[in-house]
Design a protein that fits this description.
By secondary structure, this protein is an alpha/beta fold. Helix content is 30%, strand content 17%. The strands form four sheets. It has an eleven-stranded mixed beta sheet, sandwiched between helices. It has a two-stranded antiparallel ribbon with strand order 2-4. Strands 3-8 form a two-stranded antiparallel sheet. A hairpin with a 4-residue loop joins strand 16 and strand 17. The longest helix is centred in the first third of the chain and has 16 residues.
Length: 479
């Protein structure tokens, strides 16, 4: 393959409503909102109390990932007791990494040369809600055990899959997994590794549950990115990863799309508050990514935006994009995957990247759901943007290029520019059959017993474990 850039040669995902990438793409193209709406009976069976169900602020919709309690411990060399101590975000990503390598035609444990791992995860709610007891932390000067800290996910993945390149955790809030992709691409470009796995994992709820609506969260469980009725985001669980390789090293057609440019920036103090995104930082990242890709805004047919459904955040993002795309000769489609699958926090960026890569590959832009009319503060005219409110064919002739953004609370922004790997009509490989894991429900009962012991007499702790809610913080007000 003669293209310059970094090729996406494999991908895998466990996302709301989708056990794999193929199901995820089918859902997106069909315009399906995969947020589960729970009945009162389902929530009671999961331990949600009648007092919460009767609370008018309680939204009976959630981001619980069915089967999250299943894990093939034996396949990865763990006993059930060992696996029960591991963050489910780690367990999910181990399986995703294995599938992604298989999808790339690679066999874990039989890889030549250094292979890098770059990952991001969310707060370990499983530990906080189900496992925590003071003796687990040991002395005050000891670090959190490896099964519970985000630092250890790339190290665990490298160890279990026999990968010898750089293994680095990236923590940048909702930008984490797309920052991981940028770091992986740069590592390949610098010849620090010959293959890289990049992605993220996030578990928002460890049991079926809804949430209490508050500032920044959707009061009805629906994300309406850029829309006049937008009232907030909602969180969900999932994991996804991509396998990257230098284009010059690709010897067959195992390519979904090619990363042409990427950039990571921070707003510094150029914004209204720590939890508020800034125009300048996002614009800097988009402009730098386009420059490194040697492309103009008019070359971009679609932008997969951060688009979390908060009026302030969406307005700032569109304003920043408009400052870069101002004067573009063509209309650019704009959309967000979050109205379809929820906000995956640390895994959100790579979920958007996979969507954009498949859109570039197939020449189809899936609908950005729940959009009827732009919010008064969202100015689409500056950059000649049009919201992709329905699934449609690629809007521009010639080579297909897309941008992908992820914005983290605290101001870190990542932007990636990707394009199709070869002229339309080039034969593409059939996907390899994935390794079928033997899933074991090995930890759910011990976890419930432990939760009951540690939460005995603490109604607040028990309610949080059942509902998946957290105390109010800066996160509520940012995007």
């Amino acid at each position: 393959m003669s293209d310059d850039g970094i090729a996406i040669v494999g991908m895998a995902a466990r996302l709301p409503g989708a056990a794999d990438v193929a199901a995820y793409w089918d859902n997106l193209c069909a315009g399906i909102d995969t947020m589960h709406r729970y009945s009162a009976a389902e929530l009671r069976a999961a331990g949600v109390g009648d007092d919460l169900l009767a609370d008018p602020r309680y939204v009976p919709a959630g981001g619980y990932l069915p089967g999250i309690e299943d894990f093939d411990a034996e396949f990865f060399g763990y006993t059930p007791a060992e696996a029960a101590e591991i963050d489910p975000q780690h367990r999910l990503f181990l399986e995703v990494a294995w599938h992604a390598l298989q999808d790339a035609g690679e066999q874990p444990g039989r890889l030549d040369g250094p292979v890098g791992v770059f990952t991001g995860t969310s707060v370990n709610r499983y530990f906080l809600r189900h496992l925590y007891r003071p003796e687990l932390l040991g002395a005050a000067d000891e670090p959190m055990p490896p099964g519970h800290a985000p630092d250890y996910l790339p190290l665990r993945t490298a160890y279990k899959l026999g990968l010898t390149g750089p293994a680095v955790a990236t923590q940048a809030a909702c930008a984490s997994s797309l920052v991981a992709v940028c770091l992986a691409a740069q590592s390949l470009l610098d010849f620090r590794c010959d293959l890289a796995i990049a992605g993220g994992s996030s578990v928002a709820a460890t049991t079926p549950s809804g949430y209490l609506a508050r500032a920044g969260l959707s009061p009805d469980g629906t994300i309406r990115a850029f829309d006049a009725k937008a009232q907030g985001t909602r969180y969900a669980s999932g994991a996804a990863g991509v396998v990257l390789k230098r284009c010059e090293d690709v010897t067959d057609d195992r390519v979904y799309a090619v990363l042409r440019g990427w950039a990571v920036s921070n707003d510094g103090a150029r914004r209204g508050g720590f939890a508020v995104p800034g125009v300048a930082g996002l614009a800097d990242a988009v402009a730098e990514a386009l420059a490194t890709a040697d492309l103009l805004p008019a070359d971009i047919g679609y932008v997969e935006a951060h688009g979390s459904g908060t009026p302030l955040g969406d307005a700032i993002e569109v304003r920043a994009l408009g400052s870069v795309f101002a004067g573009a000769a063509r209309t650019c489609l704009l959309g967000s995957v979050k109205p379809s699958i929820g906000n995956l926090d640390a895994a959100a960026g790579v979920a958007g990247l996979i969507k954009a890569a498949l859109a570039v590959r197939d020449g189809v832009v899936p609908a950005s759901l729940h959009f009827d009319a732009p919010h008064p503060d969202v100015d689409l005219s500056a950059g000649r943007f049009e919201i992709a409110a329905d699934t449609r064919e690629w809007p521009t002739p010639g080579p297909r290029y897309a941008g992908v953004s992820a914005i983290g609370l605290g101001g870190t922004t990542a932007h990636v520019v990707l394009g199709e790997p070869a002229p339309a009509g080039t034969p593409r490989r059939a996907p390899l059959p994935p390794q079928q894991f033997h899933r074991q429900r090995h930890w759910i009962e011990p976890v419930r017993r432990q939760r009951d012991r540690t939460a005995a007499g603490d109604d607040t702790q028990r309610d949080r474990a059942a509902t998946g809610t957290e105390p109010r913080s800066e996160v509520d007000d940012d995007r």
